[in-house]
Amino acid sequence: xxxxxxxxxxxxxxxxxxxxxxxxxxxxxxxxxxxxxxxxxxxxxxxxxxxxxxxxxxxxxxxxxxxxxxxxxxxxxxxxxxxxxxxxxxxxxxxxxxxxxxxxxxxxxxxxxxxxxxxxxxxxxxxxxxxxxxxxxxxxxxxxxxxxxxxxxxxxxxxxxxxxxxxxxxxxxxxxxxxxxxxxxxxxxxxxxxxxxxxxxxxxxxxxxxxxxxxxxxxxxxxxxxxxxxxxxxxxxxxxxxxxxxxxxxxxxxxxxxxxxxxxxxxxxxxxxxxxxxxxxxxxxxxxxxxxxxxx
Length: 296
Ligand SMILES: Cc1cc2nc3c(=O)[nH]c(=O)nc-3n(C[C@H](O)[C@H](O)[C@H](O)COP(=O)(O)OP(=O)(O)OC[C@H]3O[C@@H](n4cnc5c(N)ncnc54)[C@H](O)[C@@H]3O)c2cc1C
Fold this sequence. Notes:
Layout (H helix, E strand, L loop, with lengths): L2 H7 L3 E6 L5 H15 L5 E4 L8 H14 L4 E6 L5 H13 L4 E5 L20 H12 L4 E6 L10 H13 L4 E4 L5 H13 L5 E3 L1 E2 L5 H11 L5 H9 L4 H21 L4 E5 L5 H10 L9
Bound molecules: flavin-adenine dinucleotide.
The site of flavin-adenine dinucleotide has 24 residues, from strand 3, strand 4, helix 5 and helix 6.
């Protein structure tokens, strides 16, 4: 089912993001965790695409399996880094042949070892160009999502310019946006206010990550430029080297973050699960308890 059709009957959606497992052991672990998450009946799940197409075949195999064997509604991420325009559109045609109806279309980060982004000589320079070309070739076959950055994309010179470029993606045919992870809800609500002022009216689904470890939060914040509130860093610091306590703090923070987002009227939540089910299942079970049942 197209995500845009789901929006017609649901005021909010919840969804999970996965990445293709790297080897056989990871694949077994993935199956166990996806099994747990399927019980929560997500509106859709998404599968990331490796930088520069590094996991292209594993990505297509996984989206094929999830879409055609599990009954889940799948959104395939696709990044145009490293592909010519023709290769990119051929890949999209292949996703169509796998019955994929939902795409998250992205430019992508530079492949490992490369510092700045450099487009393929015959490729798309920005996500908006990819989105425009997919719409031109495939019309409305797909519901199209794009990424957005409440704290500004790291390469953008300033937030206002980033929003102008985001508007290009909307005008090119984006149906909905999913945010980069963030921890401060004010940042999200201010951002959405600025998008509305700029004439962007589509759903802006917050992307949330339950922090699982100290190294993970440091890595993500460094990569995405996301600010981590002191309330969270202080608590994590107080846990010292107690990994279980750090994960508990991360889950409790995510529960409160999601509760406050839902109370603020967000159109759903997209969970960056990192292929683990424990924290996400706990967050859902907590938020679905009767006192919160109006939210889920
Ligand atoms: C929800 C979500 C899912 C993601 N999934 C993946 C994934 O599966 N695989 C992966 O590798 N990465 C993924 N990413 C990361 C993403 O690939 C990077 O953030 C990448 O650096 C930017 O991709 P984009 O599509 O947002 O790029 P763009 O929208 O092209 O923007 C990139 C930069 O270029 C600027 N820009 C855009 N258009 C123009 C223009 N015409 N002129 C000048 N500047 C311009 C923007 O302001 C921004 O600074 C995801 C990010 C998000 C938010």
